[in-house]
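Researcher: Predict the fold of Probable RNA 2'-phosphotransferase.
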Amino acid sequence: MDDQRAVSVSKFLSRHLRHQPELIGLTLDAQGWVPIDDLLRATARQGFALTRGELEHVVAANDKQRFAVDGDRIRASQGHSVPVELGLPPAEPPAYLYHGTVGRALARIRAEGLRPMDRHHVHLSPDRGTATRVGARRGRPVVLSVDAGAMNRAGHVFHVSANGVWLTDAVPPAFLRLRD
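Model: Structure tokens for Probable RNA 2'-phosphotransferase follow.
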């Protein structure tokens, strides 16, 4: 599978496993899982035929490990805008986590903190490099440092997804620092 096809498949899967499963006739269970065979039939009905081998390649090769497979089921690891309960237990975060954004968002973030927007959680990275890559998707990246240890001590709950993305409901401005 060439890189262009892998990106196309990954974007298709992200859209339908995180945001709009109904557009291709899928119904996610309460934890976001869908049978792989149902997914493959749905992609074919949409004219986006996908083989099981291609699916397995995209799941295994995705640099962010956006998808999880459990037996004959698949789901997005996080980032849903549709109602799902991923069942991730609370986890103690490292002292600092990072969030990649762009300069045009800083005024709002400084005033309101980080909010999940149309997702269930705020996504945080365990390292500056990952946060930089996340921010770069929308322009020149700005990396914010999150005092996750202090947030945790203050009672904020964190979860970590299978692919290492840290999740929390929101990050108040007091716990954010601009990293250059």
